[in-house]
Amino acid sequence: MQNSRRIILGYNSGVAFLITAFAAFMASGANAAEPIPWQMNFQPAATPVMEKIIDFHNLLLTIQVGIVVLVLGLMLYIIIKFNSKSNPEPSKTTHNTPLEVIWTVIPIVILIVLAVPSMKLLFFMDKAPNPEMTLKITGHQWYWSYQYPDNGDFEFDSNIIPDDEIKPGQRRLLEVDNQVVLPVNTEIRLLMTSEDVIHNWAIPAFGVKMDTVPGRTNESWIKVTKPGTYYGQCSELCGVNHGFMPVAVKVVSKDEFKKWAAEAKKEFAKAKNTPVKVVKMKSPAQAQLR
Amino acid sequence: MSETAHADAHEHHDHRPTGWKRWVYSTNHKDIGTMYLALAMIGAIVGTAASMAIRVELHEPGVQFITDFQFYNVLVTAHGFIMVFFVVMPALIGGFGNWFIPLMIGTPDMAFPRMNNISFWLLPAALILLVIAGLIDGGPGTGWTVYPPLANADFHPGMAVDFGILSLHLAGASSILGAINFITTIVNMRAPGMTFHRMPLFIWAMLLTAILLLLAIPVLAGALTMLLTDRNFDTAFFSPAGGGDPLLWQHLFWFFGHPEVYIMIIPAFGVISEIVSTFSKKPIFGYLGMAYAMAAIGVVGFIVWAHHMYTVGFNVETRAYFTLATMVIAVPTGVKIFSWLATMWGGSIKFDTPMLFAMGFIFLFVVGGVTGVTLANAGADQAFHDTYFVVAHFHYVLSVAAIFAMYAGFYYWIGKMSGKQYPEGMARLQFWVTFIGVNILFFPQHFAGMAGMPRRIPDYPDAYAGWNMISSWGAYITAVGAILFFVVLWKTLTSKETVAANQWGTGANTLEWTVASPAPFHTHEQTPAIGTQPAAIGTQPAE
Amino acid sequence: MANEAAKTHPWHVPEPSPWPIIGTIAGFIMAVGGIWFMHDGPIYLFGVGVLILIYTFYGWWRQVVLEANTAGAHSEQVKIGLRYGFIFFIVSEIMFFFAFFWAFFHSSLPILNNVAQAWPPEGIELIPASGVPLLNTLILLSSSATVTVAHHAILDDNRSKAIMWTWITAILGAVFLFFQAEEYIDATFKLSDGIYPSTFYLATGFHGFHVFVGTCFLAVCAMRLQKGHFKPDHHIGFEAAAWYWHFVDVVWIFLFVNVYIWGSSSFGHVAAG
Ligand code: HEA
Ligand code: HEA
Ligand code: CUA
Ligand SMILES: [Cu+2]
Predict the structure, then answer these.
(1) Gap between the Cα atoms of A88 and B74, Å rounded
(2) Fewer CB near the last or first residue (10 Å), C or N of chain A?
């Protein structure tokens, strides 16, 4: 009696753990536009592209877990059934044509099942159908600069807030001095390039990740569906401070955006000729290489 | 010549040069193979030390001990290069290839024994150049992909990157000469009766790997040369200011780089095939399918390179093509996985250490392979590219699968190479420590990557702290596994227990098990007779 | 022989040799010396490396030649292996040039590179294909014929004829190099003038270097012929030199057609819109 109860208890708590873990897995990151501790999944989507990526990945994940579990299951079965104790006499089978055809054809079928949504996603994310405004992004060692050609053509730099200036509640390594402000529910074309080495402008919640290559202009697009502040980081090794050029985008209502743009136009017109702010990080090497 | 004068009545007429000349001037495939394995172990110590430094730095958010972030980038670069060029390649290709190609195909040595020696010696020279690169002028903080403009003279003045380039040039020359030697040996020197379709799968793997090397490495050499002249002679291949294009480098690098990853895994496939068949006491299932699956992987591997470049700004058709082409590789790879399972099916399996590592290989390679298929989709890769998800993917196929194959091959063949018995209990412990360690180390990196953590950063937003801490603990466990490996190695080499010529019994029927253990200095002086079973070999005529 | 484990295989397993490690040292010194030179150091360390390398080649191949002239070392199977080895070496060389052709097409073809500029880029004064390049094409093509004549002479055991035609081939190679040097000297663009000179000089330069190596190889073969090394059924060294020469020839044809003719025409070069 005692014994079996303990087993049941153990079983129950195991299930409880699994359920909690699963809940954490599914709910992880809800309402956050930034990574959260112990997150096991994507940040929640803020654009249709990211929504579609998540949908597609759910399909991918299901199939893959299936494949891994199948292989694991077969191996466990083999370990139990075909070890030298339980099966002293090995069989001599080396061929089974139907079987070989099956394990060639089924993966092909699976891949076709994957390829169709994959292509749909790819072609959907490629270009904005009818962009309403453009944001120009330029990568520098090691900050971003942004230009708003359709809203007064002003331009500003966006630098990381170093650790020793971080205020309580701010996110270390993700906050910048000048956030990019963008209107919600607007199809925005992103044009990116770089002034020096290759950088990569990425925001996980937007499903955007695009290299900024010197000498080229790359294009991507977003349509953010929820207001909020979204964070990302440079995603191509660009030198000493590659880890310290975050992207922060504040998405506001269309009206607020208009107001902000009018303000910003004045502010940054002045700021234009002030020298680039030098950010001090902890590392002496950084100061030296800046 | 003096050949026969020395070959007196000594049982295996074991005349060998002595002293340092035996090694430095060597023309013996076994000695050269041993030197390759020793080099791989030295490389492994350096590469693992670098990876531990990385994991210690990433153990917690903030700066742990690396205050110079260039140094962090140099560590990552050096770790990647060393593990790829000075651990996995020398162990699986140079080490096991040299030891067992002549033994398995029934020939006394490689086709060009002297060239074999220079293939080896170029590697220590290259390793020294790489170490100098890391110590000089701030080191190359470029990642192992060395993308310009970051790798250009503007952003890496100084000699560091040049030393890195020259290191790869020497390592590349070594690989090309080695590949010529391997292909010629396998094509020309098989014992009569061993047709292509009767070669052991390990030989198939080495042949295909050598072909990949022969075709891929010279392209890298060309690209490196262009980078060198861009840096030092003002050419403009990769510089937009002069009309060049940084993406040209990426094309050339990945045209080499993708085949390179199969150069590291196909030998592993070969090792695993031998082990699975031996310990199941069954011939390999679907032998021809296995051989041609590797060939297919090699061929398709040359037309998928740009899946590393999905975010460079290609037009959508290009990305669509590379997505579809890349996915195709899952099919032949699946054939291999299922054929291994079918080989075990119905077998009478002994779970000695080599088999444990082989089974670990199969399972964990599938885990790494399916995440590769995730990355293959250009659409999904927009979320994954340059995050820790990619790091998790390639460590599952490299640091887990390829390293498991090295360990597996080591335990499988150490008796043949040294004549000594490794301590089984401790070896199994080493397997379990490593198995648990690598999973704790690399599995959480999938989560960190999905949550958005970029690669190649010395410090990360606090939210990623949890999984990074777990990952670092896993790294320490894995390192304990590696230390344990060296203990096992020591115990083996100092052991008094010897092994029989065929220590694995009836399942092991390739030719290397017909010669004594340790394999005498000269083997197959008399051409062995070959049976008619594919990959199963008859016995050598009595000596 | 009392030894029961007598060798029954046809393979050649040479004695231990110092040349591989000497060659490695040469490579290492060249690497260090080359870097030093490129960072404004003197060139002599690099030069020392080159000298040791040449010494290695001399010593190593001398040994090989000695073995070739020793009965029994190079059995029929070993000769087949040597041929395979050389062919695979040429394959790797082809892939090396593949990289430079890739660079050329990437830079000049808008479909490969959507930022490619007009090709040839503005301001580049081209070398007319109908001048020296055409002449050099004729020289190399005829040298391909002369080397074949020499080969047939060896097969017919006509040594003096073989010697003559091998020397003629080597001289044609030297003449080619002379004209190429002229072409470089007369060119109005420098290596540092952007992408066109970059692709042009590296592709043709590496080809020229291969012509140089092939010429030396042929000259050595001519001298070996004079010493009577080659027999109608035993002349791997000559065969290798001839194959190498044909390979160099084919690369040149590709260079001539693509870099000189097509590369200087406007056909297919419309700049990206
Ligand atoms: C040994 C090394 C190795 C191997 C074998 C592989 C195997 C594969 N890799 Fe991996 N890869 C690397 C090493 C390797 N990779 C490295 C080092 C990098 C990073 C480089 C860098 O940026 O630094 C990388 C990066 C990388 C990327 C780029 C990611 C990015 O940077 O954004 C991609 C994208 O397509 C990719 C794909 C694949 C695929 C599809 C396979 C396939 O070959 C996998 C095939 C295997 C299976 C699929 C499992 C078995 C199959 C079955 C059980 C059948 C059923 C399965 C299905 C139907 C799906 N890899
Ligand atoms: C084969 C290749 C290989 C191997 C084995 C490893 C092993 C490990 N790697 Fe590495 N890694 C790379 C290839 C490899 N890695 C590459 C290519 C990169 C990308 C670099 C770049 O971005 O440019 C990278 C990047 C990389 C990163 C990302 C850094 C960043 O982006 O900032 C991290 C971080 O955790 C990491 C950690 C580790 C750890 C903890 C191990 C541990 O598993 C180490 C433990 C050691 C072993 C398991 C090996 C033991 C081996 C022996 C003892 C040899 C035995 C010898 C014989 C049998 C003959 N690696
Ligand atoms: Cu900018 Cu990384
Ligand atoms: Cu790849």
Answers:
(1) 54
(2) N
Retrieve residue C256's tokens. 């001539």
Reported residue count of chain C is 273
Residue window 229-288, chain A: list those with CB within 8 Å of chain B.
Answer: 231-244, 282-286
A187 and A80 in a common domain? no
In a domain, A194, yes or no: yes
Per the document, the length of chain B is 543
Give a yes or no: residue A3 inside a domain.
no
Final residue in a domain of this structure, among A110, A126, A142: A126
Report how far residue B275's alpha carbon sits from residue B266's, in angstroms, rounded to the nearest whole number. Answer: 14
Please identify, among A111, A126, A141, the residue that sits at the C-terminal boundary of a domain.
A126
> Which residue would you say has higher pLDDT here, C11 or A108?
A108
**Total structural domains within chain A:** 2
Q: Confirm whether B292 is a catalytic residue.
A: no
Pick from A118-132, B119-133, B203-217, C204-218: least confident? A118-132
Look at residue A15 and tell me if it is in a domain: no
Counting ligand 1 atoms within 8 A of each CB, the residue from B145, B264, B390 with the most, and so the one to mutate, is B390
* Of residues A4 and B185, more confidently modeled: B185
A138 shares a domain with A122: no
Count of C-beta atoms within a 10 Å radius of residue A169: 6
Residue A171 lies in a domain: yes
Looking at the structure, do residues A121 and A139 belong to the same domain, yes or no? no
B54 CB near ligand 2 (under 6 Å): yes
Q: How far is A267 from chain B (nearest CA, A)?
A: 30
Q: Which atom of ligand 3 is nearest to the CA of A141?
A: 1
> Is ligand 3 within 6 A of the CB of residue A175?
no
Q: Does the pLDDT of residue A30 top 50, yes or no?
A: no
Residue A200: helix, strand or coil by DSSP?
A: strand
Number of B–C residue contacts, CB under 8 Å: 233
Q: Does any ligand 2 atom lie closer than 6 A to the CB of residue B40?
A: yes
* Residue B375 CA, distance from chain mean position: 22
Distance B305 CA to ligand 3 centre (A): 23
Rounded-to-integer distance, Cα B387 and Cα A235, Å:
8
Chains contacting chain C through 3 or more C-beta pairs under 8 A = B
User: Which residue in chain B has the smallest CA separation from C20?
Assistant: B118
> Which residues of A, range 135-194, sit inside 8 Å of B by Cβ?
141, 163, 171-174
Q: What pLDDT was estimated at residue B531?
A: 56
Q: Which structural domain range is residue A75 located in?
A: 52-126
Instruction: List CB contacts (< 8 A) between A238 and chain B.
Output: 150
Say yes or no: A62 and A85 in one domain: yes
Residue A284 has pLDDT above 60, yes or no: no
Q: What is the CATH number of the domain that holds A152?
A: 2.60.40.420
SS3 A138: strand
Backbone angles phi, psi at A180, to 5 degrees: -75, 130
Active site residue B258: yes
Q: Is A139 in the same domain as A87? A: no
Please check whether residue B383 touches A, CB under 8 A: yes
Same domain, A227 and A104: no
DSSP H helix total and E strand total for chain C: 7, 0
Question: In Å, how far from its chain's centre is CA C124?
Answer: 28
Q: Quote the Cα angle for B376-B381-B387, to 5°.
A: 120
